[in-house]
């Protein structure tokens, strides 16, 4: 599932300061941030490079580097550029983050800046009666 893409245009080639070895925009189906493929397989659907999409991309990249370093693969897909991918994953709003692996599949829709929400959504934190505890599925 990891694929590297070619830039759409020079202006869009590196809007978030990503190096070409990490990711790039493409004319075939999105952006891929590649780390070690074992572990978490994530897809972030965004609506072009709007301010909200840029914040979502930056937030998820920072989150992944902080909590999943070396254990994730992140694919970023523009729903306007690739509507067939959005349709096949039944995307109804953007941004939407899909955790494909490890199972179970999970979806987060909306604000990606709330770190606790993302931790729980990716099943990295389990809710306990009196608080939060770090939990990483094996």
From TrEMBL:
Q: SMART domains from the xrefs?
A: KaiB
Keyword list (alphabetical) reads: Isomerase
User: Can you give the residue ranges of the KaiB domain?
Assistant: 43-124
Pfam families per UniProt:
KaiB
GO MF annotation, one: isomerase activity
Instruction: Enumerate the residue ranges of region (Disordered).
Output: 1-32
Q: Where is the composition biased (Polar residues)?
A: 18-32
Return one Gene Ontology term, BP aspect: rhythmic process
InterPro entries assigned to the protein according to its UniProt record, in alphabetical order:
KaiB-like, KaiB_domain, Thioredoxin-like_sf
Family annotation (PANTHER family): CIRCADIAN CLOCK PROTEIN KAIB2, KAIB-LIKE PROTEIN 1
> What is the protein name stated in its UniProt record?
Thiol-disulfide isomerase
To which species is this protein native?
Halochromatium glycolicum
């Amino acid at each position: 599932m990891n694929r590297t893409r070619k830039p759409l245009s020079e202006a869009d080639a590196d809007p978030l300061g990503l190096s070409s070895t990490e990711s790039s925009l493409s004319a075939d189906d999105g952006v891929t941030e590649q780390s070690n493929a074992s572990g978490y397989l994530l897809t972030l659907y965004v609506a072009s490079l709007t301010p909200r999409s840029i914040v979502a991309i930056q937030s998820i990249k920072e989150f992944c580097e902080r909590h999943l370093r070396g254990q994730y693969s992140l694919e970023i897909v523009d729903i306007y550029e690739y509507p067939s991918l959005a349709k096949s994953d039944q995307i109804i709003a953007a941004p939407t983050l899909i955790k494909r692996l490890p199972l179970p599949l999970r979806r987060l829709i909306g604000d990606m800046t709330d770190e606790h929400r993302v931790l729980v959504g990716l099943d990295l934190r389990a809710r306990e009666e009196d608080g939060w505890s770090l939990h990483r599925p094996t």
